[in-house]
Amino acid sequence: MKKIIIIFFLILLPTTADAQMYDVETTGEYVMGDSDTKIEARKIALEHAKRLAVEQIGTYLESETIVKNRMLTKDEIRTYTSAIVKTTVISENINLLEDKTTVFKIHIKANVDIGVLNNRVQEIGADTKRKEQMNALQAENLRLLKELESLSSQLKSEKVSEYKNLRQKREILFEKLEQNQNSLRVAFEKGTLLNLALKSKSKLEENKKNIDDFIQFIADNIKYTIGEVQVRHKGNMSDLIIPITWYTEKVKDIWEKIELFCDKPKEFMGRIILSKFKGIDSEILLDYFARKGIRIIVTSGYYSSFIPIKWGGWYHRATEGNLKIALHGSQELEIKDIPVEELTKIISINAKVVVQGAE
Hints:
Blueprint: E1 8-11, E2 21-32, H1 38-61, H2 65-70, H3 74-84, E3 86-96, E4 102-113, H4 114-125, H5 128-155, H6 163-189, H7 192-220, E5 222-226, E6 230-234, E7 237-248, H8 251-258, E8 262-263, E9 266-268, E10 271-274, E11 276-277, H9 282-290, E12 292-300, E13 303-310, E14 323-326, E15 329-339, H10 340-343, E16 349-357
Antiparallel strand pairs: 1-2, 2-4, 3-4, 5-7, 6-7, 7-15, 8-11, 9-10, 10-14, 12-13, 12-16
Helix pairs in contact: 1-3, 3-6, 5-6, 6-7
């Protein structure tokens, strides 16, 4: 049974192309098994060559002032180096040794821009979540590399029946490794993956808060009057008919608040009509807004009913039409089915404006 042999790497003396750049050259070799293709052997040799380059550059950076001043750990240095290192393949070839062992050899040049590294490390130092994401990605990369080596070793065994399955697993590992390394690079250079998500989430939460403030502002500034109550008799039961009129004096302020989260609101017969919210999360905000309501709740003894002036609930989602808020109006509210004997106990009718809705 053949064993995996990975012969690492001729290391050339590093050079500094200028004050900001640091270069190394490394050579990686991979001893191919009978089931290895040239493409697979190249990928494995290249990954190990890159790993050696990262180690060499990391060792150099440990002596750099920027690293010392940031008090970075060895693992952090390797993570940042993995993210920023740029590689160029100088040469590659396949050699057949005297014992008929086939060796794939690849020679690369790798470099980092120390000035860029300094700027990014400073950014990341102030961004804990971005730093945690990068550490997690690097840990996953190392795990995948170890698994890759293990699979390559298994492929050199005599269990020919497992070749197809093991090669499929290894190909999946190659893909995962490439995706992870790309994610690490993007997170380091721009913070795009995490920062964009956080920025988007922050904007979404800001717009939700604007909606909450808007709805509460209306509720706080609705004024209402209760008209003359009428009683409708139904045998032993009665209904109270209560006229309610409402309005607000804060119309200008309300429109200013709407502009924070809504595009092109309209007004028709005292009702504000909203159908499109701002940003990429418009549909989420529309649904969030639709599920909230404003009610004038009228209570008489133990009995109550309400008038919606801003409709809420799943049945008022955007798919069923525009969302409306009645800033002024009048309506007869009914409190139904009050036992006649209970009417003698009712001494007052009270009302209040409340916000209704679920997160």
